[in-house]
Amino acid sequence: MLKQIISQTEDKMQKSVEAVKGELATIRTGRASASLVEHITVDCYGSPAPLNQVAGISVPEAQLIVVQPWDKNIIGDVLKAIMKANIGLTPINDGKLLRIPVPSPTEERRKELINIVKKVGEEGKISIRGIRRDTIAEIKNLQKNGQVPEDDAFRDEAHVQKITDQHIAQIDEVLVHKEKALLEV
Questions:
Q1: Cystine design at 109: which of 56, 87, 102, 105 (Cβ 3.0–4.6 Å)?
Q2: pLDDT tens-digit readout, 99-158
Q3: Which residues contact 63 (CB under 8 A, 6 or more apart)?
């Protein structure tokens, strides 16, 4: 029973780390990345679809994203969706594909982005700590009800703390890489 609880805890913590990574991927660093636009929802053929399901997205240069719709008839819908997403990028339509230049952010904007990155990281850490708190409370409750021996409960609480530390370290590592990317020109 405790192994299952700890396994679920690890899964939840890993999902928190992945959520932080996903959110950080959408923050513009001045380098072009497909993740800046692939999540944008395009209304085409009467239903919404993620951009990466209706177009090919490539990054041929460090400061350029190219979006090539698979059906040339929806290029206008794709253009509208990118503009509506308000990501601070203006696509250039050449009739067959969209070129999206990604300018380098100003020094002031980089500082703002670093603060946003730190906030996202802290929210991820808070989520992980909340998962730890709930798991330890569950272990203590099992021990209090006599379902788990005190020694096992103590050992598993220490194991949960170790797992927590590992996942927080993963978030810290992701934050360091993102901050470094923001500071590079």
A1: 105
A2: 988 887 788 888 888 898 999 999 999 999 999 999 999 999 988 888 888 888 889 999
A3: 30, 31, 32, 101, 102, 103, 104
What predicted TM-score, i.e. pTM, was given to this entire model? 0.69
Cα separation of 148 and 54, whole Å?
53
Q: How many CB atoms lie within 10 A of CB 122?
A: 13
CATH of domain 34-101: 3.30.1360.40
- State the fold for domain 2-26+106-183: Topoisomerase I; Chain A, domain 4 (1.10.132)
Which of 62, 137, 153 has the alpha carbon at shortest distance from 102? 62
Write out pLDDT tens, residues 47-104.
888 888 888 888 888 788 898 888 888 888 888 888 888 777 888 888 888 898 888 7
- In the chain, residues under CATH classification 3.30.1360.40 are 34-101
Output DSSP code: residue 96: S
